[in-house]
Amino acid sequence: MNVLFRALVALLVLSPLACSAAEAPTYKLGEHYMRVREVQSPLNPAKIEVMEVFAYSCPHCYAFEPDLTKWLKKLPADVEFTRQPHTLGQPAGALRNKAFYAARMLGVLDRFHSALFNAIHKDGKTMATVEDLRELFIKQTGVKAEDFEGAFNSFAADAGYRRGENAIQAMGISSVPTMVVDGAYFASPGSAGGGFPGMLKVTDFLIEQARKERSKR
Q: Which of 128, 170, 207, 213 is packed most tightly, with the most Cβ within 10 A?
């Protein structure tokens, strides 16, 4: 009886430990994340690409920035993060996106990106004209007006914006913000569940999935 009692006590003590063991979350294709309609090749094949598809006019994308910034601080070495602006079919969106590519060409994207978001959603400015964008660009980045004009009106900026729109359409993405992993799968706050943190958890899951898939090639 004493042996049986000790065994029962041991079972009761160990049970909470067994129940508290964290299990890796399982997410389902078609429910928590989707496969893109047309797979896109990463800009850097040596890295797992995570692309944020966003729009400067989108208040949800602006609200997502703090969560995204924290997440990026823990980005693994084998992962490369990129941003892909979406016009959402708005003429002003095309101008903002060309300014995005101009900023990237001139090496001042980090400063301009947050400044443009703040101008629209914090300061209530429309930022819908070239003049507005030029003024903000010069003020926030220190770039000369002629350098902005040259980059903004360049073939490279126009081609970048058009290529980005075509890629978004080819992938079948219709809402923002959306996170695309390795050009093959994407998740949104709605599909992932749990809002922005939920979308980032699914993104982490997809990164690990992409890592395993690459190891088999």
A: 207
